[in-house]
Amino acid sequence: MVSEKIEAPILTGSITVPKIKENASIDQKCHHAAEKHMEKLGFPGVKPVDWKEKALKKMKELLKKYRSLKVYLDTCVRCGSCADKCHYFLGTGDPKNMPVARQELFRKIYKRYFTVEGKVLGGLTNAEDLTEEVLEEWYTYFHQCSQCRRCSVFCPYGIDTAEISMAAREIMDSIGVGQKYCNEVLGKVYDLGNNLGMPGPALRNTLDFFEEDIQETTGVDVKLPLDVVGAEVLLVSPSADFFSAPHVDSLVGYAKIFHKAGISWTLSSYASEFANFGMFIGSYAVMKKVATRILDEARRLKVKRLIVGECGHAWRVGYSFWNTLIGPLDFLDPKYPIPQHICEFSLDLVNSGAVKFDKSANDEFTVTYHDSCNVARATRMGDKPGGQFEIPRALIRACCNKFVDMPDDVNREKTFCCGGGGGLLTEEIMDLRVKGTQPKAQALKDLMESHQVNLMVMICAICKAHFSHVLPHYGIPMETVGGVHQLINNAIVL
Amino acid sequence: MNIIAYIAVVIFIVGFICKVRVWTKVPAPLKIVTTPAPITYPGVILRMASEVFLFRSLFRGNKLLWLGGWIFHISLLFIVLRHLRYFFYPVPAWIMSLQTIGIYAGYIILLPLIYLLLRRWTVEINSYISNAMDYFTLFLIIGIAFTGILMKQYIRVDLVDVKAFMLGLLTLHPTISPGDILFLVHFLLVLFLILYFPFSKLMHAGGIFFSPTRNQRDNAREIRHITPWSNI
Amino acid sequence: MGDVLEVGEKKVDVDEDGFIQKWDDWDEDVANALAKTEDVNELTKEHWVVVNYLREYYTQYKIAPMIRLVLKETGKRLGQDKAVSNKYIYDLFPSGPAKGACKVAGLPKPTGCV
Q1: How many Å apart are CA C106 and CA A445, to the nearest integer?
Q2: A153–B129: do the CB atoms touch at under 8 Å?
Q3: Which candidate from A1, A188, A243 shows the least CB-CB separation from C114?
């Protein structure tokens, strides 16, 4: 609620390591998923009496399924390289938000039940029994990890706290302790194909609005086709692109670029969501089920190419996991990457001269770019490492005159999470989200003062939604947030 | 003493192999490499080498810690190589050539060790994340280094005895251990270290090679990665 | 799960975020009570324009209207020839169209990356 107190940290001009404040963010707890949300995904609706045995059994299962989990639990030396790399720790000072300390919440149980060292030496190695209190702690702090992988960049062994928090969430789901935000949304995808729960007719109505709007503003008849069998391209974008500001402006950008390229394309009312929160809750099965909708729809619509919209974590699922989960997608045209990111697609068109921009249309903006965590640290674009950084930037430079890059320590693979990723984009932990935004807000504010930056674009629906709500707490207007294809929307010559 | 030595060594070898075997057997179901990442195997080898020999990620994370950690490990390497002279007869020339640098390393190693200890003690966030065994491991290694320096510099032990003892152990013809207390303390601490090794965080030495965020290629779209336990 | 909102004699079930659970529980008094939880002291004519549109749209499409539809339709209903601004909606409902306005209109909370 609005009246609840949210404290935005004061931006001091630099990103500094805070003093430790025990339990500083312990009150930031996500709503629990209701029985109906849990059962829909095949999880128990309530916590069973023998939850502890079940949790340990699940842990044992995961230790046999995921090398990452096993190796990372075994190898951490608590050197502390990651400790000051998490935005939630930097923002709150709660020591359990240090990546290593967050991992220890899991590791202490692992040690106690699955290692000789923990069984023999007990508390000396930090090993601890699994109790109600520990479970409570798990629920709180594994839902204060945005799975952004920034810690893994700086870990000498590449330990990725996201892997641990995914496993923890999977274990909790398996004993009926789930998070409402993710699980409710996943239920809607099961029912209606998208996170919003938007039925087909509403989607068509929305697309009609854009067609009329483009006609009114440009005089050009640009279509936003839906469920067209035989289209060349199936475009799968995050459903927020059909609903929120500034997301919708990028959707119009996609439409215009397809129109200009003269490539037949379609959206789908069945696979109307690129996002895949199955990753956030660590469930391979759910992630696969959500991805399968897209596979089925690509087959049904007989498309030759799969192109995906501006969504960070989903680009990770699409780029890194689809081939494993729903591949081989060998019925698609192998001449193009499968899937292809809309930025890769658009830049190809720019480079081939098929689309032209009137850069001056964006002259009111001095633009910077926010690297979204999953895009930056878990994917690639193009055929060279680092393409995920260069391609969006090349696109921005192609359609606007004034671009300023973020400073190195918050840019590219060192970028900070917006503060709302990993399934944490929910109101009840707004105070945490605001605090977690501190590092990126600091960097943006600096650029606003030094270079008059007034637009930060990005290619992630979560980042867009989160920043729009949170930046005003730092005195930065929500209109400062935009999408890369929003710039294209403004500048494309139709 | 002979029996303790054999037990420690056997536990070390068997424990190490078991742990590595488990890591080998547990599959990596998904591509989770931390990008930007190499696309080819030579690229992966280069990336791993930069981690193993230069601690690249740690360097990016914390320069002072990197300096301490790197000096510690490189010193340790030279110390171990130098000590090989007690296991060979005749001693190969390359080991002999490492004696001087190995001896220096034996002194130098105390500096990073004390730094690492003070860091855990005095820096707030490091003290928060450190547990008893983290300190114990440091004390153990400091103890080994300290007794080693004492033997080298101040209270000389009979190296002929020591070498005969070590060769005996190695050739499975154990002899009576040297009676020198300082040597025995040094030797026992080392045995304890290697005995504790496979059960502890010291396994990071092997773990790094199995880290999917570092050892995978970034080629998810080009080559289909298979999840062994998935039903398709 | 959730709480109860007391509106005069009436008790209305709301979820953890204060959204009413049942569509039919909604009436003007409930809307006024919901508005108070959103830091809107009094529902003015301008508020009702938005609220009524949201309810009409939801009745037809089972989802809240997309932001640009809200802006355009609100402008139209106010007799203007262009859409209202995003800021206009935020001035009316401080927590925004998806949360504040939908809550007062008795719609379920929009979910996803919004």
Answers
A1: 37
A2: no
A3: A243
CB nearest B51 (choices: A74, A124, A156) = A156
Complex-level ipTM: 0.96
Q: Is C113 in the active site?
A: yes
Segment C37-84, tens digit of pLDDT: 999 999 999 999 999 999 999 999 999 999 999 999 999 999 999 999
Contact state of A245 with C94 under an 8 Å Cβ cutoff: no
Is B133 within a domain?
yes
Tokens of B161: 């005895």
Out of A2, A238, A243, the one facing C66 most closely (by C-beta) is A243
d(CA A84, CA B65): 13
Quote helix, strand, coil % in chain B, to nearest 5: 75, 0, 25
What domains are defined for chain C? Answer: 3-104 (1.10.10.370)
Residues of B in contact with A79 (CB under 8 A): 58, 65, 69
Structural domain contains residue B15: yes
Does the beta-carbon distance from B125 to A17 stay under 8 Å? Answer: yes
Q: Is residue B220 part of a domain?
A: no
Q: Give the bridge partners for A306, in sequence order.
A: A234
Q: Which residues of chain B have pLDDT under 50?
A: 232
Other beta carbons within 10 angstroms of residue B191's beta carbon come to 19
CA distance C61 to chain A (A): 5
Asked if the structure places residue B94 within a domain, the reply is: yes
Q: What are phi and psi of B104, to 5 degrees?
A: -60, -45
Would you state the pLDDT for residue A4?
Answer: 58
Q: Which residues of A touch C37 (CB under 8 A)?
A: 1, 3
Give the residue ranges of DSSP H helices in A193-246.
Answer: 200-218
Domains contained in chain B, number: 1
Q: How far apart are CA C10 and CA B145, in angstroms?
A: 78
DSSP at A114: H
Dihedral of alpha carbons A267, A270, A273, A274, sign = negative
Residue with the two structure tokens 């998070």:
A179
Instruction: Say whether C60 sits in a helix, a strand or coil.
Output: helix
For the record, the structure tokens of B51 come out as: 């981690």
Determine the distance in angstroms separating the CA of A203 from the nearest CA of chain C, rounded to an integer: 9
The whole-angstrom distance between B9's CA and the closest CA on chain A is 18
In the predicted model, what is the mean pLDDT of residues A416-436?
Answer: 97
- CA dist A472 and A467 (Å) reads 8
Predicted confidence at residue B231, as pLDDT, reads 67
* Interchain pair B213, A327: CB under 8 A: no
Domain that holds residue B87: 2-206
Overall fold of domain A35-177: Fumarate Reductase Iron-sulfur Protein; Chain B, domain 2 (1.10.1060)
User: Is the per-residue pLDDT at C3 higher than 90?
Assistant: no
